[in-house]
From TrEMBL:
One function term, GO molecular function aspect: 4 iron, 4 sulfur cluster binding
Active-site residues from the entry: 115 (proton acceptor), 383 (s-methylcysteine intermediate)
Similarity section: Belongs to the radical SAM superfamily. RlmN family.
Gene (name only): rlmN
Swiss-Prot/TrEMBL keywords: 4Fe-4S, Cytoplasm, Disulfide bond, Iron, Iron-sulfur, Metal-binding, Methyltransferase, rRNA processing, S-adenosyl-L-methionine, Transferase, tRNA processing
Reaction catalysed by this enzyme: adenosine(37) in tRNA + 2 reduced [2Fe-2S]-[ferredoxin] + 2 S-adenosyl-L-methionine = 2-methyladenosine(37) in tRNA + 5'-deoxyadenosine + L-methionine + 2 oxidized [2Fe-2S]-[ferredoxin] + S-adenosyl-L-homocysteine; adenosine(2503) in 23S rRNA + 2 reduced [2Fe-2S]-[ferredoxin] + 2 S-adenosyl-L-methionine = 2-methyladenosine(2503) in 23S rRNA + 5'-deoxyadenosine + L-methionine + 2 oxidized [2Fe-2S]-[ferredoxin] + S-adenosyl-L-homocysteine
GO biological process: rRNA base methylation; tRNA methylation
Record's miscellaneous remark: Reaction proceeds by a ping-pong mechanism involving intermediate methylation of a conserved cysteine residue.
Binding site for S-adenosyl-L-methionine: 207-208, 239, 261-263, 340
The protein's name: Dual-specificity RNA methyltransferase RlmN
Amino acid sequence: MQIPGHIDPVTTGTVPLRGGNRVDLVGLTREGIRAALEDAGLDAKAAKLRAKQIWHWIYHRGVTEFDAMTDIAKSMRPWLTERFIIGRPTVVTAQVSNDGTRKWLLAAADGQEYEMVFIPDADRGTLCVSSQVGCTLNCRFCHTGTMRLVRNLTAGEIVGQVLLARDALGEWPKGTMAGGADDEEDDAGHYTSDGRMLTNIVMMGMGEPLYNFDEVKGALKIVMDGDGLALSKRRITLSTSGVVPMMARAGEEIGVNLAVSLHAVTKEIRDEIVPLNRKYGIEELLAACAAYPGANNARRITFEYVMLKDKNDSDEDARELVRLIKQYRLPAKVNLIPFNPWPGAPYECSSPERVRAFSNRIFEAGISAPIRTPRGRDIMAACGQLKSAATKVTRAELDRIAEEKQAALG
Ligand code: SAH
Ligand code: SF4
């Protein structure tokens, strides 16, 4: 049966090269950098050595100029500069919330805009990364889902967010690196790589990461690479609205923590608020969670549950949620997200008392169900509020999108 509505991964546009004819090395694998160098004329042995050095400078030291690569012969650096760049997304705006949360609106080389958020906490700093410009999925409570224009971000644009965040937080290691400078003085000071502000990454920005699997995988592989950003897979969480056929691969090939945007426990309500449910239903989704490679009691799956007034927040819903988690024997915790409103949103947030009661019902059954504190609401940086200002749709368009969805639901 043909399923109506925006639930399939439709993307538009092609991605032009940043830096004109020069090749952006950000986002390539080490092997990809080697091949690019060889294509440009280096012999195999030199390409391999230079690729290793360049990788280290890009991902370990955060440099953006070949001139700063002090262990590469001085004469070679202009040759590299002519042919390659180490790109960064363009910062359109950068905002800081009164709670310390930061939001950046970024632009890709083709002008497409996407957002990234940094959330500092006492014991960690979490970067919320986007995987697409917009999202094809139209979850009814999500601002990103109302964006019309969509394209997948490239691995370079995804990893570029992490590089840019480290630039902005000023946390690239300084000083001499072991085995480093061979023909020039390196920066003064000590080399440190600990005490980082950016400790965690969540793929919870704009877009559905499992509808952009290859690029997300490529980016996260780079982020996890030991000679570079070196973030542990335990500190990375991929959030999906339930793209069932890609979940096993995500576990096997990427291996990061999984978060699933469940949000409802009945077909009727989930069909309405997460339209993808009409394609992959709750049972199928939970079975895929039970089979997720690497999930166990030490590494539980997070179920995200947005609290919508009179929609999905009753005690009965809480009981059913517990029953489902137990039925599928899921090593799970539940993250309750108070609904973050945006202009024209068709829902309201449940009352604080209701959220607390819902949380208690789940805790009473022995399942952890913390309530997520909204962060950065004043700068529209909270969950589901991300949407580039440049593509804001009118009220009339919003109504039309809602109507389309209603029609699709029959
Ligand atoms: N597309 C992925 C990841 C991005 S959304 C997914 O849906 O899982 C990250 C989380 O924010 C999801 O759980 C999403 O459902 C939630 N979210 C979206 N809009 C929200 C809103 N207005 N208020 C609170 N949470 C929201
Ligand atoms: Fe897309 Fe996630 Fe928003 Fe749904 S909640 S529209 S899947 S970004």
